[in-house]
Amino acid sequence: MPCEVAARFLILYGSQRGQAQSIAEEICQQAAEHGFTADISCLSNQHNYNLDSEIRPVIFVVSTTGDGDPPDTAQKFVRKIKNKSLPHHHFSHLRYALLALGDTNYANFCNGGKTIDSRLQQLGAKHFYATGHADDGTGLEVVVDPWIEGLWDALKKTFSSMEKNNSDLEVDLHLLKLSEADSQKGKEIKSDSSDVETLSTVLVASLKQSVPPLSQSALSVPALPASYLEVRLEQVSTERVSISKAVQLTQDDAVKAAILLELDISEQNLAYQPGDAFDILCPNRASEVEELLLRLDLQMRKNCAVQVNLLKNSTAKVPLHIPQNGSLQFILTWCLEIRSAPKKAFVRALVDFTQNGSEKRRLLELCSKEGSADYNSFVRDANVCLLDLLRAFPSCLPPLSLLFEHLPKLQPRAYSAASSSLQHPGKVHLVFNVVEFPARPEHPARKGLCTGWLAGHVSSIFRPLGTVPASEHLGTSALPRPSSTFHLPADPSVPVVMVGPGTGVAPFIGFLQQREKEREANREATFGEMWLFFGCRHKDKDFLFREELERFAHNGTLSHLIVCFSRDEPDAAGTVNRPTYVQHNLRLHAKNVASILLKDKGSLYVCGDAKNMAKDVNDTLLEIIGNELQIDKLDAMKTVAGLREEKRYLQDIWS
Question: Which residue intervals define the domain Flavodoxin-like in the entry (predicted)?
Answer without folding.
Answer: 9-152
